[in-house]
Amino acid sequence: MSRISLTQYLIEKQREMGIIPGELRLLLEVVARACKRISYAVGKGALSDILGEAGSENVQGEAQKKLDVIANDTLLEANEWGGHLAAMASEELDHPYEIPNRYPRGEFLLLFDPLDGSSNIDVNVSIGTIFSVLRMPEGADEPEEKHFLQAGYRQLAAGYAVYGPSTLLVLTVGDGVACFTMERETGSWWLTETNMRIPEDTKEFAINASNMRHWEPPVRRYVDELLAGKDGPRGKDFNMRWVASMVSDVHRIMTRGGIFMYPRDKREPDKAGKLRLLYEANPMAFLVEQAGGAVTDGAGRMLEVRPSALHQRVPVFLGSKNEVERVTAYHLQG
Ligand code: AHM
Ligand code: MG
């Protein structure tokens, strides 16, 4: 059987009732190319100067790793000249990145977390890139920060790359979720899963349990019930996994189901949780819903949250539908 490349997959999506416009296809190919470059940099590890701290901080006050900066620059440089984008926004940049005047501008907005799971870089554990594509609002002229503040259901495409034992690209253009594996020798992306599906039920959950004392009552109740196992109200044992790279934790759920939680935390003044809405929660929510799972912020559907700031944080409950619905119901019960 002949293999299907990323290009062929995207061209077929373009042909099938124009699911994606040609310009979007070209943009996604550039993003994939940038992820390939990041993958090569990650793969070199200590053999090139990519490990350790960069000596700077990002807008959220987090220390940047060298690889955060390299991945961010790689995505900006690969995407700025193609003519498909109006602007880009990144976890590593305070404000949106304007396309330099010397290049043509397009109609799309690209948002990304260039290197997710930064705490895992130096210990050789899987990390990744998360991205989301929006369209400039109709009638908008010069791209501004407010144009990025669109609800997640408006995304045209979303995906992540995992830099793990193999490098994968998981992508949705709103027509299911496909997974591509990078062939290291040639740098080609080959379709290795056509329609990823998340089972509705699961016996596996993912949460950073060291924060337990800071959780709100609905999350404590839900996790306590899981931990009680077969003798508790759930009547079955649950297993726990936590990689601390959202891409890896979500990829496991995309592959075999589970629930991932990064809840509110009463330590934080706005109690919003750790993860960012526009370039972490929303792209993952688009992918997970397209694979038959569910994603909420505890109160309602993630993809309907109205963003108020570019780097806004949000609680995240994501994965197997019946579990996400249960923990969300516990929130609604107060
Ligand atoms: P990052 O984008 O700065 O790497 O932070 C996000 C990461 C997620 O990948 C992961 O789910 C979470 O932070 C882990 O947090 P913790 O260190 O609290 O377990
Ligand atoms: Mg991140």
From TrEMBL:
Gene3D superfamilies tied to this protein: 3.40.190.80, Fructose-1,6-Bisphosphatase, subunit A, domain 1
Start and end residues of each Fructose-1-6-bisphosphatase class 1 C-terminal domain: 198-331
One Pfam family recorded for the sequence: FBPase_C
Residues given in the record as Mg(2+) 2 binding sites: 113, 116, 280
EC number: 3.1.3.11
Coiled-coil stretches noted in the UniProt entry, renumbered to this chain: none
CDD domains xrefs: FBPase (cd00354)
Subunit details: Homotetramer.
Membership in a protein family: Belongs to the FBPase class 1 family.
Protein's name in the database: Fructose-1,6-bisphosphatase class 1
